[in-house]
Amino acid sequence: MSLAATQFDSLSITQISKHAQTLVRFISQFESCAVALSAGVDSSVVAKAAFLAVGERAVAVTAQSASLASGELQSAQQTAALIGIRHLVIETAEFENADYLRNAADRCYHCKTELYQKLQSLAAATAGCVLLSGTNLDDLGDYRPGLVAGVEHQVVTPLADCRLDKTTVRGIAKFWDLPVWDRPASPCLSSRIAYGETVTPERLAMVDAAEIYLRGRGFTDVRVRYHRDDLARIEVSAEQISDLTGDSMRQTVDTKLRSLGFALVTIDLRGFQSGSLNQLLQIQT
Fold it and tell me: What residues pair up with 169 in beta bridges, in sequence order?
C-alpha cells in the first residue's frame, strides 16, 4: 500500500460525506463547467463532483503532450468513463514556447497558460461555462507558479475554495469509489527536469521509461530527476531505499538507466519527496 493510502483514517464517513456534499453544492452554482482532468485524485474528485452537480453540462478535458507520462491519458479516460462525464482530449503546444523550454522557475506558469487558453476557447462555445481545476488547499502553501496562470484565466478551484486538503480529497475519492483514491501524485514529466536544464521530449522520454522500469521492479513512490550532464537522481520511499541499494538491484538499475541515455545514476538517500526540485530554488519575495 502506498503512503497516500493511509493518510485519512482519522476522518469519519460522516465527515467525508459532508465535505462531498459541500463540494457538489459549491459547483452547483455554475451553469456549466469544464474540468481540467489529469489522471490524479484531485481533478478526478472535481470531475465527479461536477457531474453530480450539473450533469451533462459538465465536461472533463485532458491535455496531451510529450510531458504526459505513459498511462496517464488512459487512466484519465477510464476515470471519466466511470464517472459518466463527457471527456475531451486536446493537444497542447507548450513545447513551441521558448519560455517553457528554457525551464526557469516559472515553467509551470507557461504550461498552465497554454492549457487554460485552450480550455477557454472550448468554454467560449458554451454559455456560462467556467473552468475548474483540481487545486486543493495544500497546494496553496507550495511554490506553484501555475496558480498565477489560473487566476489570470479566471479558473475556479473548488477544492481549495471549500477548504479541502489532500487528505480529505482522498477520503472523498474513496467514498465515491474512485479507483484513483490511493494513487500517488504524478505531476507532469517536465517537473522531473532540474530548473535551468532545457526541457526536451527526448529527456522526458528517458525519465518516463526509467520510472516505468522502477515501478515494474516494485518501487511504488518513485521519481527519477534529470540533472545536468544526463545525471539521474532516483527517489524512492525511505522504506525501499535498502531494496534499491542491494548489490544485484543497484547494478541492474544502473545498467538499465544507462541504456536509456543517462550517463550517471545516483540515489537520493533522503528518499521520495514530492516537489524536491523546488527546494533548490532561491525564491525572491
Answer: none
The span from the CA of 82 to the CA of 89, in Å, is 16
Q: What is the pLDDT of residue 257?
A: 98
Secondary structure of 17-60 as H, E, C letters: HHHHHHHHHHHCCCCEEEEECCCCHHHHHHHHHHHHHHHHHEEE
Cβ count within 10 A of residue 216? 8
Distance CA 173, CA 181 (A): 5
80 vs 52, 89, 153, 174, CA distance in Å? 13, 11, 24, 16
CATH assignment of 3-182? 3.40.50.620
pLDDT tens, position by position, 115-144: 999 999 989 888 889 999 999 999 998 778
Sign of the Cα pseudo-torsion (196, 202, 203, 208, in order): positive
Instruction: Over range 238-248, report the average pLDDT.
Output: 94
Domain boundaries, the chain: 3-182, 189-280
- pLDDT score of 4: 47
* Side-chain-facing half-sphere of 238: CA atoms under 13 Å: 4
Q: Note the pLDDT tens digit of each residue in 37-73.
A: 998 999 999 999 999 999 999 999 999 999 999 999 9
Class of domain 189-280: alpha beta
